[in-house]
Design brief:
Layout: H1 2-5, H2 21-27, H3 35-55, H4 77-84, H5 93-122, H6 129-136, H7 138-141, H8 144-154, H9 161-168, H10 184-208, H11 213-221, H12 226-254, H13 258-264, H14 275-284, H15 289-320
Helix pairs in contact: 4-15, 5-10, 5-12, 8-10, 8-13, 10-12, 10-13, 12-15, 14-15
């Protein structure tokens, strides 16, 4: 018999004749091999997270940091203060959350059509297409701090290129303030649009290359023109990829810290005081470490909402495959 010969039909592994405890041990998955990775994960992720949760319930600041384990326990006070009290310029957590969400949605809404149009143009063969594709990636591979410094210089009051150009075209004054005041939000959006639109372009171009030419030939036979083929063939097939691009782009812009930090300094104007910058100012400039930890945990809870949809999209994609 197969079993007597020592072959396990379920696992396909050779086991000693007669089964027994040793045979069951050989069939058991070697979970002990996961312990080094699990221990490292606990050390790097779970332990700091637990410390952050504990810190958020304490009054840890510059006076108690030398004995942080004995900092006074204040309960939910840090969470209440996050919603009612602001940082150095008065931006509360709700104001910073609104700034982050508005920035993420506005940037994503602008780069989506730009990326789609660029991908459609680059999907057709023409002389020099490889070079143009490479040039399209230059803003995306540029480091964020370089992009922030560049746009900070462009938006400098009176002598920056943006002010001079708008003044020459008689569209705005040469003394338009872009780095302070209400215009800061759109200055940050424009700087991030320049750097991030190739992300949507890359994903869309990859999706376009997966669409069979036979579908377009069939649509042409049915009498469909260019716009009809885009809305009835291309766009439905790109919908999963575009959904993933929108979600990842929104998450990335929501967590953008380097751009507003370098472009506007700290503390930034209220219009661009996004959550990551607010947490940084609260924790390391106001030295309210307990309040910064509470704001970080609230930010994590907010991020879990789009993360849930991201995981759901990934699972739906695996199911469709």
């Amino acid at each position: 018999m197969r079993e007597a010969a020592g072959m396990s039909e379920r696992s396909g592994r050779v086991v000693p004749p007669g089964g027994g405890r040793r045979a069951r041990a050989l069939r058991r998955p070697p979970f002990f091999l996961l312990w080094p990775s699990a221990a490292l994960l606990c050390l790097i992720v779970l332990l700091p997270f637990a410390i952050g949760v504990y810190t958020s319930f304490t009054g840890l600041n510059q006076y108690t940091i030398s004995h942080w384990s004995s900092a006074p326990f204040i309960g939910w006070q840090n969470y209440v203060d996050s919603f009612t009290q602001g940082d150095a310029l008065g931006a509360t957590l709700l104001q910073s959350a609104w700034a982050s969400i508005s920035f993420a949605l506005a940037t994503t809404a602008i780069i989506l059509p730009i990326g789609i149009v660029a991908a459609l143009l680059m999907n057709r063969p023409f002389p020099g297409r490889g070079m143009v594709r490479s040039l399209f990636l230059v803003p995306f591979v540029m480091p964020t701090f370089v992009n922030a410094i560049t746009w900070r210089l462009l938006f400098m009051n009176n002598w920056g290129l943006i002010d001079r150009l708008l003044s020459t075209l008689h569209l705005a004054s040469a003394n338009t303030y872009w780095l302070i005041g209400p215009n800061t939000f759109w200055a940050m959006v424009l700087a991030d649009v320049w750097a991030s639109w190739p992300f949507v372009y890359l994903l869309t171009l990859a999706g376009l290359q997966q669409i069979s030419d036979e579908l377009y030939e069939a649509a042409t036979i049915d009498g469909a023109n260019g716009p009809a083929m885009f809305f009835q063939v291309t766009l439905p097939l790109l919908r999963p990829i575009l959904g993933l691009a929108i979600l990842l782009s929104t998450l990335n812009h929501y967590n953008n810290f380097t751009l507003p930090f370098v472009m506007f300094g700290t503390p930034p104007p209220t219009q661009v005081d996004v959550l990551p910058v607010n947490v940084y100012v609260t924790s390391f400039q106001l030295f309210n470490l307990g309040g910064g930890a509470a704001m970080s945990l609230i930010t994590l809870l907010i991020m879990l909402v789009p993360a849930f949809f991201y995981i759901r999209l990934v699972r739906l994609g695996e199911g469709a495959a």
